[in-house]
Batch of 4 targets.
Target 1
Amino acid sequence: MKPVQIENEDRRLLLQLEPGLPLVPRPYAEVGAALGMTEDEVLSRLGRLIASGVIRRFGVVVRHHEVGYKANAMVVWDVPDDRLATAASHLSAKPCVTLCYQRPRRLPEWPYNLFSMIHGTSEATVRQQIAALGEESPLVEIDHDVLFSRRRFKQKGAHYGPCRPSLVNREVA
Amino acid sequence: MYSHLEQRLLNEWQREFPLEPKPYALMAEKLGMSESDVIGMLNELKEQGAISRIGAVVKPGSIGASTLAAMAVPQQQLEKVADRISAYPEVNHNYERDHRFNLWFVVTAPDEDALTRVLDTIEHECELPVMSLPMIDSYHIDLGFDLRFSSPVLEVQA
């Protein structure tokens, strides 16, 4: 996706928020104090970032696995380019689909250009949901593959800020 | 299972979290509990891992560069390679998936150049090619998730 230009102060604010809003009575004041911004400024910047779509959502980020959604599958589709938008909006409207992205094909080993994430309480439930999706008109006869998650080695929020050089440039084994 | 109040905390503020000086006090009022109990309960849910954070889900590309990367790792090396990749602060999700491409991870960096450098370093360190699949378009981005605690589906779940 094309990078979006945002103000440096907004960028600092978003980086400061990466670990999460502090669990204290005046969290926005605390975030502001770390940045030399007032509570009002933090609130108005966040409001603008939400309104402009830079922040897609602001709120509680739940870890699906821990709350009972034990199974998740990445279902990848090889959709003819002229049918991509139709297939994507069909998938996006399904309650079981939590993400739907277009990504590049890497031929010959990776022919899939549409990625959807499906969460469910069990693998059987997710398989049923995928089977049902595959029978619906915009997706029928579209080649797809299902990649269930197995071990989760790491899950945390994104970190866009600069990393400590010692970690980035560490010795190559 | 989660108490009714915990379920409401997990479900009702995934979007439109209050942009008010005292957000937890507002939530407390809505739930009929005290502000300090809301904060305490959120802390507990965070410690248990049910909540990763209260925060912003940002449109990809707006504060940096990111990609979804995949690797085909020989099974006997998978754990070692996965641990090495997880050690990078730029990697935030890292999953095994049942496919020839069996390791999938998300990499974020301040800009495209830095992202490329991280991917190159990973390739070099692991001696395996990395397939990078940056997002071209998002049709549906994480908008939160109705946990449907009231549906029978979750109740049969152990």
Target 2
Amino acid sequence: MTPGLAGFVAAGDDAATWDDVTVGVLAALEQGFTVVPEHSGAAGAARRRTWFDTFDWRLYRADLILSYESGHRGGELRLSNLSTPSSPSSPSSPASPTSLTRPISRARLTSLRNATPATAPAAPAATEIVQPVTGWQASRPHGPQDLPDGAIAARVARLLAPRVLLPMVTVATVTAVTKLLNEDGKIVARLRVERPVITGVAALPPRLTITEVRGYPGQARRAARIVSLVAGVLPATEPLFADALRVLGRRPGDYSNKVDAKITAGMPATEAVAAILLRLLDTIEANVPGTIRDLDTEFLHDLRVSVRRTRSALKLFGDVLTRPPAAKKNGLTEDDVARFAAEFKWVGDLTTPTRDLDVHLLDFEETAQTLRAAKPDDLEPFRAYLKQRRTKEYRALARGLRSPRFVSLLQNWRAALTKIQDNSKSAKAGTTARSGQSGRTAGETAGTLAAERTRRAFAKVAKRGVAITPASPHDSLHDLRKRCKELRYALEFFAPLYDPVAYGKVLSDLKRLQDCLGEFQDTEVQIGEIRGLATSMLAAGEAPAVTLLAMGEVTAGLAARQQLARADFERRFAAFADVDGQRRMSVLLRGGAA
Amino acid sequence: MRIYATYNIKGGVGKTTTAVNLAYLAATETGLRTVLWDLDPQGAASFMFRVKPRVKGGGRALIRGTRALDDAIKGTDFDNLDLIPADFTYRNMDLLLDSARNGGSGAPGGKPARKLSKLLAPLAAEYDAVFLDCPPSISLVSENVLHAADVIVVPLIPTTLSVRTLDQLTEFVSGFNGHRPDVVAFFSMVDRRKTLHRDITENLSSERKDVAATVIPALSLVEKMSVERAPVTVFAPRSSAARAYRALWSEIRARGD
């Protein structure tokens, strides 16, 4: 038996059905036990639980659930494993029909309360950590620094950074506990019926849990068996917070910045391109509110990446949107596409200053620790200046993102792409109706487009990379980096069309080359920025000599890193684009075009 | 973890009712994680908590260590309070404990009089308080209990002989090497209408430090525990009996501080 699972859920969609199910459960249990309502403890008490995760579900993706529950004596944070048991008060685990909640031994709970990552047991059953917390507000975002010192912070802080925890959903639950007595009148198990409600939105199906009394596992199993056989009782296969999110039209893990548009090799190229661009637009839009609220730096980062991908996509295959007959029907001309591309460049430029300053600030601690001659504290005026500049740049960014220009750009872009997609689908449907065939598409398909454009992007990378010698100017490497990004995006856009193994091989070599080129260019950009900032600080009278010296040391460190990256380039490029690399790309694209 | 033992050589003086009530108060009102071990083969404490007086493998398995004490624990109906039930085989516990001395298979290794201490040691991770309800006897079991306990709670019937018994016990314990438990006696089943009871309780409580000021009166509610099968504080929380046990528990705790 798997210990400590949540139990059951009542089937049906309405309160009357749910009540019938719980009445049926009690009637069934009366056949095997004396059934007595419990009027103390959690019985009848309403409690509010809020689940927290980052916008991109870092905890959920790491198989973790973090929730907060307020109580009379302060609040409590609870971190548990998604796939392992939790205590009765956190009915958030999947269940099997005969599952029940086993009391965790007090020794184990104690050890968990005091656990640190170094000492926490690795066994899955030992992953529930409960920790008291004060001053935590269920309705507000919380940074990792808001977590109280202890086992939870030790477990998740590094995983979260630089993201904040957001309240995902709050559920108020009223619990009724029923004691199950044996022939001696002894409590041998309990039935907990939890009625969760998303206040002001909807009630959720009741959850029924059999909890074990220590030393009476057989009786609890018997009770669980009885419950499982009652009509309308289903095993609880999803955590409560997943139920709650579904009511809100969401699901755990529903945000990712990946380009995972639903495309197939056989679909019309126009439709595939529109689907990819719409997916990118979804990501841009999803990140706008968080960027405007300045919740954490990753909103802006993801927004920028999606804008950059959009611009690359337009460059790589924007012409597909303007080709007749699509252009005729869709009304997009080359000028339209060029105008959208220019507008997205404007968005990119709008976001650059804030992001550049974010990068400096995010790396600040690490950079300060690398100083040898200067002291980390010497850099503090620099940090203060960066923050001040960041505040100013962020205001300009937020104004831009709230501006009619930006709002109408997204609206018009969505309208145009949706129209293209709809027209493509109706055209396909018409063709199918006329020909009587399905699954065949006239004109260019996503597969052929992917192969052709990716091959072209690869050829550019190969050609320009080969031309680079140790004497080449820096700009040639910067240009190659841009071409590599385009190739990377091309590969990612059409990833669903490729063999995953071949795709993985090509991408991992490309990533290494990009890392090398990124290090080479980013360090150069940062050196330039630090020089500019030093000049500005000096002009503003905010640059103590020790700070300028420390900044100088930082730039020296960056220059050393740039040299290392430059020295590594030939090896990285060869690994990606030599004869074997070309063969790997060829294999990938042949498979993709199929 | 603090270990309390209710002990008296005589039977019928209120050891079990004391252990049951104090353990209940420790768990539910003081909030200590508590376990009560019913060492009396008659199983009265187990009966009070409606737990069947049975341990898989019997006393032998526990003493030999083939079954961990942890496995024998039963949850009671009350928060924070668990029970290790009695078993009829406990009547032979003396022999099991003694077999260590004889090189037998009963208690492998260690001194026979300290075996119980060793068995209880692992519970420290899980419990704040352990109550041992002892059978009435002078035996190796009681010697083990006296060695294991931090506090020996001795219910006394207000008679001259009872006082003599207390003296004997105190003297016996004072001869221990190393760890010596505190001995706290109190008068139990006191009938205020009896002059002898009044005299003895009033005089001794004031004269002797090892006798608590609290007395537990002879009340029918205490007798009723075996009918209700629950601590008196559960079914008569505001009764004078409940008040008396609260006062006793408070006094015993205060002595430990």
Target 3
Amino acid sequence: MDENRPIFPQIAEQIENDIISGALPEETQVPSTNEFAAFLRINPATAGKGVGLLVDAGILYKKRGIGMFVAEGARARLVSERRERFRDQYLAPLLAEARKLGIDDAQLVRLITDTSPEKEH
Amino acid sequence: MTTVVEVRDLSKHFGPVRAVESVSFRLEENRIYGLLGRNGAGKTTLMSLLTGQEFASSGRIEIFGESPVENARVLEQVCFIKESQKYPDDFKVKHVLRTAPWFFPNWDQDFADQLVTDFRLPLDGRMKKISRGQFSAVGVVVGLASRAPLTFFDEPYLGLDAVARQLFYDRLLEDYSEHPRTIVLSTHLIDEVSDLLEHVLLIDDGRLIVDQAADDLRGSATTVVGGREAVEAFIGTREVLHRDGLGGLASVTVARLSDTERQAARAAGLELGGVSLQQLVVRLTSGTPTDFEEKSA
């Protein structure tokens, strides 16, 4: 948990990550608010607020009396949202740092190609 | 939302000392509150007033809608675990655990027994002889097993080692989930408990200076770091919570920034950092700190 920012969006992000990675497949039940709270050692109301964010966004839905489930199509939606943010969130700081160190675009591309595990294939 | 505690314009003076000064707030049912502040800020006095153990100099207190002073109906709903609880001279741990149920109608004996095992408490140990950590653990057991609708823990972890403190936090959360109630944790170990808190009351020098949701507080301040001139230009006339510097570098903590302001700061080459609850409390209550004291915070 990052202590320097509100916790509830971080809870939402963790659940999103699990949905994207496939650890929480669509139409499966997610842990209850109290289970999240106990596991992450946080206040249950805070955990509830994080889960609530995803319910409002339609990523999770409530089955009355049973619990919270991952909505159909949730993974695809999250992946496309994250891809949209990728440029701002990852590329911009990468380029800024590269500029600071005098790494030009060609060097950067080479660095990426060399580092990527896919180059072996 | 049901109000459990309502305090209006409460003051407590000991001679010239204004231990609590014009404090007003409410506590809502089934939340975990952090009562934070430095040593001597007035936390214990405030809790003693709320539990009818001290008389107010002025102001009003309502606990479950009534005054707590000599009011059995209210007090059986309230558990106050004091940092320095006094026990009769020859009291052993088992005597404390045998008498506690008389005062608390919701007492859960099985839970108490389980906690005694968890904390490895010596039932035949004398309260005067056992270690500070064991003494604190007895308070923790009573505070949890009492299941009082309003429970105060005043620095409950003194002498408890890291394992026992974690055990306390875990049992507290588990039991609170199953048996919701209003809990007030008074502490200066803020980093350890900050994730457990839903709401924060911060007192400084007898006055209430923060009464806010913990998660709102966590996002409420930003530290702007960069070259001194760039930082100062960005800060302008904003209210500064804290200022730090090293050579040509400045690090200034200000209140919440909007997304546009954050973009502007980044565009100006400044770095933005968050501020944890503990750092925020330090910044709000540290009077006139020197630059170096604050570096480590």
Target 4
Amino acid sequence: MSAELQFRDPQLARELAATLARLVDEIGRKVAVMHVCGSHEQAIAKFGLRSLFPKNLDVIMGPGCPVCVTDTPEVDEGVVLAHQGVRIATFGDMLKVPGTVQSLADAQASGGKLEIVYSPKQAVDLARNTNDEVVFFATGFETTAVATAAVVLDNPPPNFSVLSAHKYIPPVMEIVAEMPESRIEGFLAAGHAATITGWAVFEPFVERHGVPVVVAGFEPIDILAGLVELVQRVRDQKPRVVNMFPRCVTREGNRAAQEQLWRVFRPLGGRWRGIAHVPNGNLRLRDEFAHVDARRRFTIDLPSLWDYAPPQLARQCICGDIMAGIRNPRDCRLFNKECVPENPIGACMVSSEGTCKIWHLYGGVPDLAEVSA
Amino acid sequence: MCLGVPGKVIEVDGWTAIVDFWGVRKQVLLNIVDEPVAPGDYILNHVGFAIRRIPPESVAETLALYESLLNDDVDDLMAADIRGEVKGTT
């Protein structure tokens, strides 16, 4: 791919980077902002954007990887169900995510039935073509949860149910903003999640915390422009929500999708792996859909797994601190040593949206300036 | 995973559309799309569902962005996620 294609307007990219540097200089101290989207981190790494960021600006990837924040007991539920003889259908990224004792891939290796799907619809189709119980192990943020809601509402066959590990982004931003160690002064929100929720969903957050939120797209220019807007708001201490991705995101978002999302799911507090208990952060099926809820349809004997101690190395994993923006992969003694994509110790090395996997793939050094220096 | 991928609607039959993604024709469901969709429109697909009808004035810009992200590098996580989205269709 040519440089021309990577930056369709290299001149504009340079100007934005210069503006960003000037703004951070004017603030005169270190500034940390957070994005909550694996696709943003992929673009930042792929295009070497960190080499354009000023030294005093930390752009941290927060809990923007749904696979990474799927909690260990949630993986355990899938593993136990697989051992109980149901057919688990899930996204490919979930397979190697470590549970307490086994990952889903381990469960498959020891005889569990596992199918990789790319859509909840494919899980339903699978159920239509078998007599087995099919459980869709559903992960993803609101963008993906709306698709699960749609299949639940579309009269799925009686042998289909959902094990929901869906998560809702706005509440976790509150948690990160409230962490005592948090240095985060602004958030870059993900364009496509906001396509569903609309940008107004962030307004109460901005009011409560006085921290600006900028909705940005995925192109290098989109990200740079989003950061300029964000840092400007930090400098001027004028927090509000700014939508820099109007070609995809409106104030109200996709009402039809929201209506189906909240008809099927209700927000419930629960743990996000490595981060914290997040009030209203989990999406669980409402009582009307108990018949489609794997947690209510099956007795899932979790304690049978928890007699085991977690593996030694997993205790050294700092995924949680990385997702909270307190440390980065290079602070982890396992990163690129014991923990690699082929044999991940922590969830952040599993998913294509995990910070550790992205950094591993792009050389383990996110700032190209450091390589050439 | 939260990345939507644009495609051109070829046919609509109830809640199902046939959508063209760079020459590959797939089925996409219309249960949750924000606006009515007709042949010739472009939609953003996520896990087999249209999550947005792309406004006509934004189509060219959106397609150019994705074409610049897609390439043949098998190790490219972003391109892999985009191809994964197309696999979410049937």
